[in-house]
User: What shape does this take?
Amino acid sequence: MLKLLKTITLLKTIKLARLSLFCITAISTSVFAERTSDARSIQCLLDVTVTASQNFQTPVTQYTSIKNDGYPMLLIGIKIRNAYTADASKKIKTHHLYCLSLIGKEKDAYLSGPYQPNNIDVKIGDQLQLINIHSSGKSYPYWADFYFIQKRDQ
Assistant: This one.
């Protein structure tokens, strides 16, 4: 009888230890852990100046393998003057650091949305504010960067 009582007590102790370990893990994960950048897209607001792209001296429309909806996208070069973390990314430190790392960079950007080949109204030197949505590019749609015009400085 004593042996059975000791076995039951030991099983209860093991069960309580496992339960407390689970609770500690769950609390520390939800309270202290920061979401990884792979879990969500990084969203930045960019103040940019339109420059020549690497391949063209003026903005051009191109059909791309990135988007296949029958409309061309506008390819521009951009020089990033300033970058801010957008609302969806503000509370994630790694997202904030990524956005800040973009300041001063020059790159090519395909503006998302349809652009008609003969109706380009973005010119070299224009000041734009873009929303940049950056992801790993490892999951659908397999494209790391999306750029949308937020507003233009007139």
Q: What stands out?
A: The helical segments are 2-32, 93-101. The chain has two domains: 1-33, 42-153.
